[in-house]
Specification:
Blueprint lengths: L10 H8 L17 E6 L13 H4 L4 E3 L14 E7 L3 E9 L23 E7 L7 E7 L5 E7 L6 E2 L7 E7 L4 E9 L13 E10 L8 E4 L19 E5 L4
Parallel strand pairs: 1-3, 1-13
Antiparallel strand pairs: 2-3, 3-4, 4-10, 5-6, 5-11, 6-7, 7-8, 9-10, 11-12, 11-13
Length: 252
């Protein structure tokens, strides 16, 4: 959860901001009706290594975002690229992130899940493989250090995030200090999200976010691919009406 107040469990505020969590959810917001990312089918599975120059990513169809999450601003120097690929049992995501300076937790063990990872530089994906239940989805976060966090989200509960859930997703990052770009690669087992196998006729809901810079949320730069309907005080990343569409291309 991301809110200007930086509190993680503002379930009541979320309900007030975006509607009753058990009924009346808007499936697609007015600005996200045509927001689509196409995930390309690849022939074989591979472990993430952070190398986004390999063939699977050169064939992918990327999207970009630089929209501030909670204002009308745009962060042109942080324009973030995202691409997706898939096999029957894994969803792959790749992020290219220009940066000025990195704000990270230093000297920590990247193999251990990092709570409050969102308070440093991070990219996030919120994924809903069952759009008929918009209040239930999954959150994946990666930092430039390859630290990670995954959460199962249920907006009808308090707290809304289940930190005990473990997707088993794999990930890798690289930092190009010369070009000032950090990259991240994820491999998410879809069975962890209740899907036996991806089919080409599936359409999921998804949104991408990025947090950049030091300080609290009022000072940092927070970005969202799908435009957030509630953007002022009390705004949060957890707004299903902002989610775009994830479509699966290629042969199934």
């Amino acid at each position: 959860m991301r809110a200007l107040t930086r509190r993680r469990f503002l379930n009541a505020a979320i309900v007030a901001a975006v509607g009753d969590a058990t009924r009346g959810w808007c499936m697609v917001g007015p600005e996200t009706g045509s927001l689509v990312i196409v995930s390309e089918r690849v022939d074989a599975d591979s472990k993430p290594d952070g190398n986004l120059g390999k063939p699977m990513w050169s064939r992918a169809k990327p999207v970009w975002f630089d929209q501030a999450a909670f204002s009308e601003s745009r962060y042109r120097d942080l324009k973030t690229k995202v691409a997706s690929c898939w096999t029957a049992h894994f969803l792959y995501l790749a992020f290219w992130c220009p940066y000025e300076e990195l704000t990270v937790y230093k000297g920590e063990d990247e193999t251990i899940e990092r709570w409050r990872l969102w308070e440093r530089d991070v990219v996030e994906a919120f994924i809903n493989p069952n759009p008929q239940s918009p209040s239930h989805y999954y959150e994946f976060e990666i930092a430039p250090t390859n630290q990670w966090l995954d959460l199962k989200i249920d907006l009808t509960r308090t707290p809304l995030n289940d930190a005990s859930w473990n997707s088993g997703f794999e990930h890798a990052t690289r930092v190009d200090a010369l070009e000032r770009v950090w990259t991240a690669e994820m491999r998410i087992p879809v069975r962890s999200m209740g899907i036996e196998a991806i089919r080409r006729d599936m359409e999921w809901k998804i949104n991408f976010y990025r947090c950049d810079g030091p300080g609290d949320d009022s000072a940092r730069r927070l970005l969202s691919w799908g435009r957030l309907p509630v953007r002022g005080p009390g705004g949060t990343f957890h707004q299903p009406a902002s989610f775009g569409m994830l479509r699966f291309g290629g042969s199934s």
